[in-house]
Design goal:
mainly alpha
C-alpha cells in the first residue's frame, strides 16, 4: 500500500513564492506597472528614431529587466521579515508624506484622557 503525502493548498497561511521570493500577486503588480511605464516610453523613443515596431521589443526587454530587478529588491526587503512587512512600511511611508492616513497609531509620548478636573466617584458628589 503506497502512501502519498498530499499538499493541502487550502491550509497555506500566505501565498507561496513563485519567482525570487515574490508571490503571484506581487509579480502581477510588478509586470502591470512596468508595462504601464515601458510601453509608452519605448514606443515614443522608437517613433523618434523611425522604427515604431522596435518599440515593442524594447518594451519587452524593459519589462523583463524591471521584473528581475524589482523581484530581487523585494527579495532583499522581505528576507527574514513577517508576511506583509513591506506593505505596512509603504503605508507608513505614505502617511509620513501626507498622502494617506495610517491605520495604526503613529504617535509617541504620554497619553491623556483629556479631562481638566477629577470626575466624581458617585452621583451624590
Amino acid at each position: 500500500m503506497s502512501h502519498k503525502q498530499e499538499i493541502m493548498a487550502d491550509r497555506l497561511n500566505a501565498e507561496p513564492a513563485i519567482f525570487r521570493g515574490c508571490s503571484s500577486s506581487e509579480l502581477v503588480m510588478i509586470v502591470g506597472l512596468s508595462i504601464l511605464i515601458w510601453l509608452p516610453l519605448s514606443l515614443f523613443f522608437a517613433w523618434l528614431i523611425g522604427a515604431v515596431t522596435m518599440g515593442f521589443g524594447l518594451a519587452g526587454v524593459g519589462v523583463v529587466a524591471t521584473v528581475v530587478v524589482c523581484a530581487t529588491v523585494f527579495q532583499r526587503v522581505k528576507r527574514g521579515r513577517p508576511d506583509g512587512y513591506y506593505q505596512q512600511q509603504i503605508q507608513i511611508r505614505l502617511h509620513e508624506l501626507g498622502l494617506r492616513r495610517s491605520p495604526w497609531i503613529r504617535r509617541g509620548g504620554a497619553w491623556d484622557i483629556g479631562r481638566t478636573r477629577r470626575a466624581p466617584l458617585s452621583l451624590r458628589d
